[in-house]
Amino acid sequence: MRPIVVVVFVAALAVAASARVQTPAPNQAQAAYQLGRDAVARGEPAKAVEHFEKAVTLKPDSADYHYQLGNAYGQAVAAAGLFGGMSMAKKAKAEWERAVQHNPNLIAARFALLEFDLQAPAIVGGSTAAATDQATEIRQRDAIDGHRAFASIHAAAKKPD
Question: Are 51 and 41 in contact (CB under 8 A)?
Answer without folding.
Answer: no
